[in-house]
Amino acid sequence: MSEEQTQTRAGFVALIGEPNAGKSTLLNRMVGAKVSIVTHKVQTTRARIRGVAIEGASQIVFVDTPGVFRPRRRLDRAMVAAAWGGAADADVVVLLIEAHRGITDGVRAIVEALKERATGQPVALAINKIDRVRAEVLLKLSSDMNALYDFAGTYMISAEKGYGVDDLRGWLAETLPESPWLYPEDQIADLPMRMIAAEITREKLTLRLHQELPYQLTVETEAWEERKDGSARIDQIIYVARDGHKGIVLGNKGETVKAVGQAARTDLEEFTGRKIHLFLQVKVRPNWLEEAERYSEMGLDFKDGNT
Q: Does the annotation place 184 within a ligand binding site?
């Protein structure tokens, strides 16, 4: 095998798009493991969670950015800043849009921002959820989007079902710069396990509570204790902003938080490949949205939330 054939490539790929466009689902499909939480509630990805995929001699490091939307609160502003920060730091950017929603005002705003912010990186368009529309609608959407921006490539995909994902991953592998690999081969996420554990619990809360769940909620892993038998004890705190929210999270006779804990423990055991003892507490912190420490726990910059 010649040196040219064995040349490794590596780099960062930022997935950007509106909330709920399917970025987390695509990341998990690309990486082949559950790294970023997936829910049907928008704005659930807060931290810049990275997943690592290997394609041939290329190592693709995905930056799963929060959805880009019109921010109102400090937390929202910090999330949007994190999204654009992830895009600016990336070698390649993938804009993900939903086939059935077409070119929304939000998509137009992202495209305009890309014209200013994407300086030099190739930007690919991924049209997701293609199984929801007819072929002629897809073709028109692709044509209209490429008239708005000079995309380096356009890919029709279904992140959920896997259609077209291999083609996109192959293009990314060829497009990344020549470089030694950035992570050990067996490492699929560079997010600390404590943060991944907190994200998994927050996902279960979101799925369990649906519309009842206020966004003023965060989960922190307070302690992680390795045990001699190979298992781990994880203590987590669920912070809510009001007393009334605490009751919602606990549920009748603690049933809700118990169910959340069981579901999170199952996922954590699958993720880590070992027995997990998970203990959850619910605490009221009225001003947690204004505490810099909470933002650091989520991988966000508190200052980015300033108006």
A: no
* Statement: residue 214 has pLDDT above 60: no
Of the candidates 117, 141, 175, which is a domain's last residue? 175
306 annotated to a ligand binding site = no
Do 79 and 144 sit in the same domain of this protein? yes
Its domain, for residue 297, covers: 193-305
Q: Are residues 13 and 140 in the same domain?
A: yes
What letter represents residue 87's amino acid? A
| Residue 131 is labelled as binding a ligand | yes
Element (H, E) at 232: strand 232-240
Burial class (CB in 10 A: 0-12, 13-18, 19+), 29: buried
- Residue 159 labelled as part of a binding site: no
Q: Does 87 belong to an annotated binding site?
A: no
Q: Is 64 annotated in some ligand binding site? A: yes
DSSP annotation of 164: T
Q: State the sign of the Cα–Cα–Cα–Cα dihedral 199, 205, 211, 212.
A: negative
Is 89 annotated for ligand binding?
no
Contacts by residues 185-192 (CB-CB < 8 Å, ≥ 24 positions apart): 185/54, 187/52, 188/31, 188/32, 188/33, 188/35, 188/51, 188/52, 189/31, 189/33, 189/35, 189/49, 189/50, 189/51, 189/52, 190/50, 190/52, 190/61, 191/35, 191/47, 191/49, 191/50, 191/299
- Tell whether 67 is in a known binding site: yes
Residue 236: CB atoms within 10 A of its CB come to 23
Residue 180 lies in a domain: no
Task: Choose among 264, 290, 286: nearest CA to 276.
Answer: 264
18 is in an annotated binding site: yes
Which residue in the block uniquely carries the two structure tokens 């726990």?
A: 297
Cα separation, 282 vs 198, in Å, equals 13
According to the model, what pLDDT value does residue 102 have?
95
Q: Is 128 annotated as a binding residue?
A: yes
Total domains in the chain come to 2
Highest-confidence segment of 42-51, 116-125, 248-257: 248-257
